[in-house]
Amino acid sequence: MEGRTAPRRRPCTRIRCVTDAARVRRLPGRPTQVNRQQAGYLKVRAFGVVTRRGRGDRMAGASVSAGAGERPLEALVRAAQQASPAELPTVLERYAEAMDMGRAIVYLADLQQRVLLPLVEGEPDLDVDASLAGWAYRTNSLRVEEGTSGGLTLWLPLVDGAERLGVLELRMESLDGVKLWRCQTIASLLALIITSKRTYSDTFAQRMRTRPMQLPTEMLRAFLPPRSIGTGRVVSTAVLEPAYELGGDAFDHSFTEDFLHATILDAMGHDLASGLATSVAMAGCRNARRTGADLAKLVATVDQALAKWLPDQFCTGVFTQLHMPTGVLQWSNCGHPAPLLIRGQRLLDKALERDSEPPLGLPASLAGGPRQVHETSLEPGDRILLYTDGVVESRDEGGEQFGLERFTDYIIRSTAAGQNAPEALRLLIRAILGHRHNELSDDATILMIEWQPPGQ
What we know:
- InterPro entries: Bact_Sigma-Reg, PPM-type-like_dom_sf, PPM-type_phosphatase-like_dom.
- It holds the Pfam family SpoIIE.
- Residues 231-451 form the PPM-type phosphatase domain.
- This protein has helices at 70-82, 88-98, 132-139, 177-197, 203-207, 215-221, 272-289, 295-309, 364-367, 389-392, 404-416, 421-435, and strands at residues 12-15, 23-25, 33-35, 42-45, 48-50, 59-61, 103-109, 115-118, 126-127, 143-146, 152-160, 163-172, 175-176, 228-230, 234-241, 249-256, 259-267, 315-323, 328-334, 340-343, 346-347, 374-377, 383-387, 444-451.
- By secondary structure, the chain is α+β, with helices and mostly antiparallel strands.
- It folds into 2 domains: 12-203, GAF domain (Beta-Lactamase, 2-Layer Sandwich); 214-451, PPM-type phosphatase domain (Phosphatase 2c, domain 1), CATH 3.60.40.10.
- Helix 1 runs antiparallel to helix 2, helix 6 (215-221) runs parallel beside helix 7 and helix 11 runs antiparallel to helix 12 (421-435).
């Protein structure tokens, strides 16, 4: 009309919702689709609202501001910190309702990363490989689903650093830029809260199990770190099976200043004594590490601890230290399969293979001298694989081994397909279990280190 200026166009906020190799396409009445041939973004106009059906990404004005949600968000954090794990779903539900976010449900991945298990009763378990929630978990990406009768369902990954915990489901009538920001903030806070609470509560441990666990496995798992740890330079991730009947396999990884420390262990036998030997080895490793010992001293500490406290038990293992700024890798191999180096989507044959040394725990008179520490320089993108013999020696009903070639080829193909490191190992251990029809004759443990310095 005369005398009026044209309305200003709202700025467009681009919200990264999928991996770099994916484009989001919105189809009415269907979940958000992914085309992995192109990079893309879900576009949400700042302070606008996506309509129920989402046709043409039609937007309507909204007066909601980010500041209006800060006080309730602070209240959520305070209430969640004081709540028991059993009370956490109720606290979350109250906040979601207060902020017009509809229903909120937390799902945690089970020990074997096969299903996502709800923290509340009455909700179904969700298959990691065959659900939208599973897609969000596998790719660490937001997933938006439009319901057939209207409304939206958001699936947000719950991630603490590199550790994948599960997903958060939020059901709502509409979505705008500010609300999406709040949803993502809630998911980030929940991941930290869950990580904190599960260190002193059995509620999460109970919920993440699908069957009873044997006593030796319970003892060993009490010593295990998170499956995955990472920084902007490096990721270390591990899997081990059978999840509920472990013998003597274990892994450990940790950071100290500029170093990543990673270890894999395999004790003799498959009973409580073998689990105890592995636990002593891990305790010796951590004790030496926390006193600032170098790699040679660390391995000597483990040797001495086993020889003194469990003289009838032996253990093989590989101990590594990676200097994250430079990529210099040091390792010591104690009677264990040699580490593998994958570079540029190919295995570098025998790149980290050295003269064999005896297992851990031998008396000094039989050890044959001090342990050797080896060194090499990694290139950006290199992946180091540590594994136990149960991985490659797993046999099918015809007696065919899974084998080293199939093992490394699986990692290479997963890398080429753009799988993140934790997902590549999840798929690999599923393939190994499938080779044996889910019945392993020996423990199978894999730890993978991926070095990717910033700007490379």
